[in-house]
Write a structure and sequence with these properties.
587 residues; alpha+beta; Butyryl-CoA Dehydrogenase, subunit A, domain 2; two-stranded antiparallel ribbon; globular
């Protein structure tokens, strides 16, 4: 049996190994990795966790004070499109792409392995990096995402070369990825994009004219952009996909970086506006298949967004635990007071649920990638779970980061204490890759077009069936009942008019999250009980109670003291004896 973690030994949430200090992240990653991979991955993630908690987090503080700057023109008035990066950000890139091999190791076998890692490896790495610099995870994830598209659809040699460079770990040859989708008049309505692609006399080479409005990692060499060939139909079906690099044949591509956005957060990634003025674009795969091809990247990007949310929650929770264990008020540290204990239990429970859901979706993404079959059960289920994961984790990250600022008091609102930057960085996560409303409507479409409900039901039931320990009996019964109600809710919306279905779409997305996350936590808890520790059973019971159990008078009159009695188990990861949990059931 292990005792609770003593967070008072830390000064703050930096200068440590983020992998080693977070049992939750280690557990959900271990569960999601394909069989046999975790043993090879763990040592690598441990090294990255050490780098993220020291080198990368220090770099992030420097970059926050010296973010990328754009010089559209040089001193002679000639187009320059030059983005100036602080050396600290260049060092973070080197640590990520070359030393860790983020985009290399999921496409090429790393040293010591015969096969590449799955995408869960990239999701785990991005989560760790988000503890230190969530903004940097944007270009890092787009690099992997762009390579995913080119791996499957590259076709021509001139495009395959960009795949090789996106997946290189050589400091001299690697490039980063980006995607230019958003246009001012389009936004989430990608089918309204107006950028035109005109054919040249070279096969597969086009000149692009148009404006892209929200372009993160603006000067990437591996940028993917959607445009409409002349004569192609309107809407999504008329879009083609192109690689639009920063440079062509040793000179600038024909585009103008008009300005960088003056953003609230994620300052480490330069986001700007681009005018394409005959820019060279290399056609990816077949024409008029652009949006379908981009969904390969979009699914991964949305899951990366969830990983960034989980990383922010993990860092903010860590900062809160360290502060609460060290800050004295009225003669005791504030983590000894009931209200703070309740706050930390709730924050930890939210973090555990979001991490469990995200990595369960990552496991499905790996399963789909192994076959590439869009008719497969894995693909249809991940198309439901990924938008739900992105939506819910993004919202939870904002709420948790905001409350972490409050836990730290005045310092939590001040630059240099971590939580203030994490809150600013978190605020974009509900916006990137689809807003909450867009994603909730996506859930309705997936249920309708892919009949994903028939796959969600056995996925939840299988998890509940495996949670057969007496310590889990009551929460399993609760989730079983809610699961039946969820099925009824889906049937109601499937037969309702469009307006009512859209009105309830966000409620449905939340219901899917709560039910699946609860089932995943309970199944994981059963595995941990077999290993002799019921600590996760306590967490699962907390989540189920918070999500589903209705109490009179808001629970005030029922004598519930769980947050006080289970504080060490939930927040400080103390081991819990399964028999003790069965013998003394919680109210």
């Amino acid at each position: 049996m292990s005792g609770p973690t003593d967070y008072s030994v830390f000064e703050d949430g930096t200068g440590m190994n983020y992998w080693a200090v977070d049992p939750t992240l280690r557990r959900v990653a271990r569960r999601a990795y394909p069989e046999g991979e975790f043993a090879d991955a763990e040592q690598r993630l441990d090294r990255l966790g050490e780098q993220a908690g020291t080198r990368v987090v220090d770099n992030a503080e420097l970059v926050e004070r010296h973010p990328p700057e754009l010089d559209t023109y040089d001193r002679d008035g000639e187009l320059a499109n030059h983005v100036d990066y602080h050396p600290a950000l260049v060092d973070t890139e080197r640590a990520t792409y070359c030393e860790f091999g983020l985009s290399h190791d999921v496409f090429h076998a790393p040293e010591g392995r015969e096969e590449p890692f799955g995408l869960t490896h990239a999701i785990a790495a991005e989560t760790l990096l988000s503890f230190a610099d969530p903004g940097f995870v944007c270009p890092a994830s787009m690099t992997v995402g762009a390579a995913l598209v080119l791996e499957r659809y590259a076709g021509r040699e001139q495009v395959r070369e960009y795949f090789r460079r996106l997946t290189s770990d050589d400091p001299e040859t690697y490039v980063e990825g980006a995607m230019f989708l958003t246009e001012k008049q389009g936004g989430s309505d990608v089918g309204a994009n107006e950028t035109v692609a005109r054919a040249t006399d070279r096969e597969g080479v086009y000149e692009l004219e148009g404006e892209k409005w929200f372009c993160s990692n603006i000067d990437a060499e591996g940028t993917l952009a959607l445009a409409r060939r002349e004569g192609a139909p309107d809407g999504l079906d008329g879009l083609s996909l192109f690689v639009v690099p920063h440079t062509v044949d040793g000179g600038l591509n024909d585009q103008r970086y008009r300005r960088l956005k003056d953003k609230l957060g994620t300052l480490s990634v330069p986001t700007g506006e681009v005018e394409l003025t005959g820019a060279t674009g290399y056609l990816v795969g077949e024409p008029e298949q652009g949006f379908t091809q981009m969904t390969e990247m979009l699914n991964f990007e949305r899951l990366s967004n969830a990983a960034a949310s989980v990383g922010i929650m993990g860092r903010c929770l860590l900062e809160s635990k360290v502060h609460a264990a060290s800050r004295e008020a009225f003669g005791d540290t504030i983590d000894q007071y009931p209200l703070m204990r309740r706050d930390l239990v709730e924050m930890q429970t939210t973090y555990e649920a979001c991490a469990a859901f995200t990595f369960a979706a990552a496991e499905l993404l790996d399963e789909y990638r192994r076959t590439g079959d869009r008719e497969s059960d894995a693909y249809r289920l991940l198309r439901l779970l990924v938008p739900v994961a992105k939506y819910r984790t993004a919202r939870e990250s904002v709420d948790l980061a905001s409350y972490a600022c409050e836990v730290l008091g005045g310092n939590g609102y001040v630059s240099g204490f971590g939580t203030e930057r994490m809150l600013r960085d978190a605020q974009v996560l509900p916006i990137w890759e689809g807003t909450s409303n867009v994603l909730s409507l996506e859930v309705l479409r997936v249920l309708d077009r892919l009949d994903a409900a028939e796959l969600l039901l056995p996925a939840v039931q299988q998890r509940l069936d495996s949670a057969d320990h007496p310590a889990l009996a009551d929460p399993v019964d609760t989730v079983e009942s809610e699961f039946a109600d969820l099925q009824g809710a889906m049937m109601t919306l499937a037969t309702s008019d469009t307006d009512y279905a859209q009105l309830q779409a966000k409620e449905l997305a939340d219901y899917v999250f709560d039910t699946f996350a609860a089932a995943e936590l309970l199944a994981s808890a059963a595995d941990r009980i077999e290993a002799g520790d019921a600590r996760l059973a306590v967490v699962a019971r907390e989540f189920v109670a918070d999500a589903f159990e209705r109490t009179d008078a808001r629970g005030i009159a029922d004598g519930d003291r769980r947050a006080i009695e289970r504080f060490d188990a939930v927040v400080r990861h103390a081991t819990v004896d399964p028999e003790a949990l069965v013998e003394t059931p919680e109210p």
